[in-house]
Amino acid sequence: MNLYVAQNRANWDERAPAHAASPDYEVDKFLEDPAFLSNVVRFDRPRLGKVDGLRGAHLQCHIGTDTLSLSRLGARMTGLDFSPAAVTEARSLAAKLGDNTDFVTANVYDAVDALGAGAFDFVYTSIGVICWLPDIQRWARVVAELLRPGGRLFLREIHQMLWATDRLDDGTLAIEGAYFERDQPITGTGGGTYVQTDVVFQETVAHQWSHGLAEIITALLAAGLDLTMFVEHDSVHGELFPGAMESLPNNEWRLTDRPWRLPHSYTIQAVKRP
Question: Beta partners for 165?
Fold first, then answer.
């Protein structure tokens, strides 16, 4: 395990229990309402279509709320994450719900060995995850190997243009970050996280990588998948710029000032060639 992966895993291991306890992940609602779905899956559902009876793999599943939401829609799900602590939280929630979804601890690049080649009708990737991967071409090959012929990938992600945008001290939004993939990571330090919590974290170093849209689409095509959907959205799951975004009724967030300037997120679907 290289240093980047080790530090990222330590970062997520420490945050997983805090995320599970935070009201933002709405674990209590899963326990109270058998029909409750995560905000992420509710947003995706019109484009995702029916998954009833399909076998799905959720890569980088974190604490499993999206995975279990897909299970509630009738899919036979397997979640995979490199954080043992996150998988522990996912298994705990599944047990409380009486859901038999499998959760596996493995690096996403080892997913074929961990889950099996050609075993899945669809691969699902929820928002805010591919930035943790250094090589998008290798990721695309993993997705293709997991899918049966005719199987599909469903990916919704934060738009790289929004990722590359920074809010300056005077409140101005400016393109300061990387758009294209680079060999070296974007390394940040900070003791916070994206949910409400009083936990003080000790693991403060994290490494991310940028991936332009053309790089992602080209990688999928080269891996043997054909693009069937590409939609850009004017909202994103999460308040990326506190104080500069407005909350929408569907629990999404959008820039308050001229939101039409930037795509906020996007959805891609691609089907594996026979």
Answer: 175
